[in-house]
Design brief:
The chain has ten helices and 13 strands. The protein has helices spanning 42-49, 90-100, 105-118, 134-146, 164-177, 190-196, 214-220, 238-242, 264-278, 292-299, and strands spanning 2-13, 16-27, 31-35, 57-62, 75-78, 152-156, 182-187, 199-204, 207-213, 224-230, 247-253, 256-261, 282-289. It binds adenosine-5'-triphosphate.
């Protein structure tokens, strides 16, 4: 069931078209990842969806919204670089955000306590935000975006600037949020999307180059991969593997070789046999299905 339907979304900056007609839906109760390298147009897209930036063309329709209704109340947004008043405590900050979002004094107070618990910073609620860790600040930012019970929460690169501990905290929170609301988050870290999200949108040069669930993407790019690490340059061993019937492609990078094939079992068995018969100087062998990174590299043609 679509929560939001986006059709032909465009953005020009002084004649330079950076978002080139996006069509996609955000499904109710799902977590969607907006993926793409730096400059792909993720922030611009999120800013248009959140109402902070006027699109140059296209439409954004909330299925549940009445005609002419202000959609901002449906949306919670955490920008890539949120700004806090460092002297405020976490509790004060959320209360303040609640009042700005139009909650009554009582509602803001109650929702603040509820969210401090949900995002796991209740113990630090009396501490100034300036003393919070990066992960805590980001969780406070997510709580702020949820304060008015939006139907959709959008997070711009919520984990990219965090250390591994902070990253884990926020990813676990995102996992939990899926039960609360619909989530759209942008990232250039493909693993994070793979871990948390149901739906994937790949943005490249302002266009969606691939979209679907992880299973749909894997199905569409049905390939497996066997990775070999050699003692020495992989290039000199390439010929021995390239002629096998099941091999669909080979990538070589220094001492590493990636062999792509449609059938993982057949490829693994075959490659192990070649390795054993030829006594190649292998230090590592690993077989796996396509990761999001492989799929992304494939669709952007690198
Ligand atoms: N206000 C602006 N004026 C002119 N060009 C802009 C403006 N904002 C963004 N752009 C350009 O639009 C393109 C997309 O930028 P955007 O910030 O949306 O990408 P992104 O995918 O979020 O990248 P990043 O991960 O680096 O934040 C870039 O080429 C950028 O230079």
């Amino acid at each position: 069931m679509p929560l939001v339907q986006i059709r032909g979304l465009r953005k020009n900056f002084k004649g330079n078209e950076v978002i080139k007609g996006l069509d996609f839906v955000l499904k109710k109760g799902k977590c969607t990842a907006l993926l793409g390298p730096n400059g792909a147009g993720k922030t611009t897209t999120l800013r248009m969806l959140s109402g902070l930036m006027e699109p140059s063309g296209g439409t954004i329709d909330f299925t549940d919204a009445k005609k002419g209704e202000d959609i901002r109340k449906f949306i919670g947004y955490l920008p890539q670089f949120p700004v806090y008043y460092n002297w405020m405590t976490g509790q004060e900050f959320l209360n303040y955000a609640g009042r700005l979002a139009g909650l009554s004094k009582k509602e803001a107070k109650e929702r603040t306590e509820e969210l401090l618990g949900l995002v796991g910073i209740a113990d630090a609620k009396k501490r100034p935000v300036g003393k919070y860790s990066g992960g805590m600040k980001q969780r406070l930012g997510i709580a702020q975006a949820l304060i008015h019970r939006p139907k959709l929460i959008m997070l711009d690169e919520p984990v990219s600037a965090l250390d591994p501990f902070g990253r884990r905290e926020v990813l676990e929170l995102l996992e939990k949020l899926k039960n609360e609301t619909t989530v759209l988050f942008s990232t250039h870290i493909l693993n994070d999307a793979e871990e948390v999200c149901d739906e994937i949108l790949f943005l490249h040069n302002g266009e969606i180059v691939e979209a679907g669930t992880m299973d749909e993407l894997r199905d569409r790019h049905k390939q497996s991969r066997v990775e070999l690490q050699f003692k020495g340059q992989a290039e000199e061993f390439k010929k021995a593997f390239a002629s096998a019937g099941y091999v669909q492609g080979i990538e070589v990078d220094g001492s590493q070789m990636k062999i792509f094939a449609s059938d993982l079992d057949e490829a693994t068995k075959g490659i192990l046999k070649i390795v054993a018969d030829g006594e190649f100087p292998i230090t590592k062998i690993e077989s796996s299905r396509m990761t999001l990174e492989d799929i992304f590299m494939k669709v952007v043609g690198k």
